[in-house]
Write a structure and sequence with these properties.
Layout (H helix, E strand, L loop, with lengths): L3 E7 L5 H8 L7 E4 L12 H4 L17 E2 L12 E2 L15 E2 L4 H9 L8 H11 E3 L13 E3 L7 H12 L20 E2 L10 H10 L4 E4 L3 E9 L5 E10 L2 E13 L2 H11 L2 E2 L1 H6 L6 E2 L26 H4 L4 H13 L1
Parallel strand pairs: 1-2, 1-12, 2-9, 6-7, 13-14
Antiparallel strand pairs: 3-4, 5-8, 10-11, 11-12
């Protein structure tokens, strides 16, 4: 177990894997990654992460999933909403539906012009999107061609996909040839983070695996970060100098020579901050936590998207239902065998 490093990264998810890769490019710097979950490879059931069509298998248990539920939502007649979050190397990129969606360019412009995030305009972010990506259709003004993250489209065509897009166009909506390109509005085929070999292109495969071969990288799984370690600076401020974490039933600490980086996701990062005394002072006191930095915004204003399913009966035998249902199990089994044999 390493007890110090130049950079200590908490959380090996969508952001943490990228950070480990980029930071360790400097061979003079040591990087330690602490991930609460298990590896996304090397387990008997790792195929449930790597096989794209098996994505639903990990959504309803807590082996590779934090399996959160919201508080009762007043606007939804007090229903609770399921919040799956990845608990494995790759984080939620090991759990999600692999849709590669950058979002609308004007949202980035709003951040820059209205919300004060001047470095987050779409024009400022686009070079980094391209740097990250290798698109199966090659590089252009909006797509990258040499990045670590492989992005594909239309792996297997289905008549229903084409009919859906054509129906949208016939109804008067525009055709979006590239939903991450010039125009997002309209109907079209989505980009996917599925690799050339048909495996999920999560950030563990794209970024972390190449970095793990470097001598200056250490990855510790099943290491649950519990709090930040602080030092008192001469000016009265606090400085993060390390992390406390649980591993194998033991409480351990690791110190950072340069930086402590929290990349535990939209739920995990504010959670650890509040456990470490960063948040609303009164709220922390109510839970017996000593305030270190009074920041009332921590843990507030989470904005998430809702997902709604609309199902229709198919009038022709072209639906994918036979592969998703156990009513005719041989279809599902043969699809899985085909993937393993690729």
């Amino acid at each position: 177990v390493v007890d110090s490093a130049d950079y200590v990264v908490a959380g090996g998810g969508s952001a943490g894997c990228v950070l480990v890769n980029r930071l360790s490019e400097d061979v003079s710097s040591t990087v330690v990654l602490l991930e609460a979950g298990k590896s996304d490879r090397g387990k008997w059931d790792s195929w449930k992460i790597q096989m794209p069509s098996a994505l639903t298998y990990n959504l309803h248990d807590n082996k590779y999933n934090w399996n959160f539920w919201t508080e009762p939502q007043a606007e939804l007649q007090n229903r609770t909403v399921h919040q799956p979050r990845g608990k494995a190397l790759g984080g939620s990129s090991s759990l999600n539906a692999m849709a590669y969606v950058r979002g609308h360019a004007l949202d980035y412009e709003r951040w820059a012009t209205t919300d004060g995030a001047t470095d987050w305009s779409y024009g400022a972010c686009l070079p980094y999107f391209k740097k990250a990506q290798t698109h199966m259709y090659g590089c252009n003004e909006y797509r990258g061609g040499e990045g670590p993250l492989y992005v594909s489209r239309e792996w297997h065509s289905n008549p229903l996909n084409d009919a859906f897009v054509q129906a949208g166009v016939q109804a008067g909506y525009p055709y979006a040839a590239d939903m991450n390109g010039f125009q997002q509005e309209g109907f079209g085929n989505m980009d996917m983070t599925v690799g050339r070999n048909g495996e999920r292109a999560n950030t563990s495969n794209a970024y972390l695996r190449p970095a793990m071969s470097r001598d200056n990288v250490t990855v510790q799984t099943e290491s649950v970060v519990t709090r930040i370690l602080w030092s008192d600076e001469s000016d009265g401020s606090k400085r993060a100098v390390g992390l406390e974490y649980q591993q194998g039933g033991e409480t351990k600490q690791i110190l950072a020579n340069e930086e402590v980086i929290l990349s535990l996701g939209a739920v995990g990062s504010p959670h650890v901050l509040m456990l470490s005394g960063v948040g609303d002072k009164q709220h922390l006191a109510d839970h017996g936590i000593e305030s270190q930095i009074d920041l009332p915004e921590v843990g507030q204003n989470l904005q998430d998207h809702l997902e709604t399913y609309v199902q229709y009966s198919c009038t022709k035998p072209v639906s994918l239902l036979k592969y998703a249902s156990w009513q005719q199990p041989w279809h599902k089994i043969m699809a899985g065998v085909q993937w393993f044999l690729q």
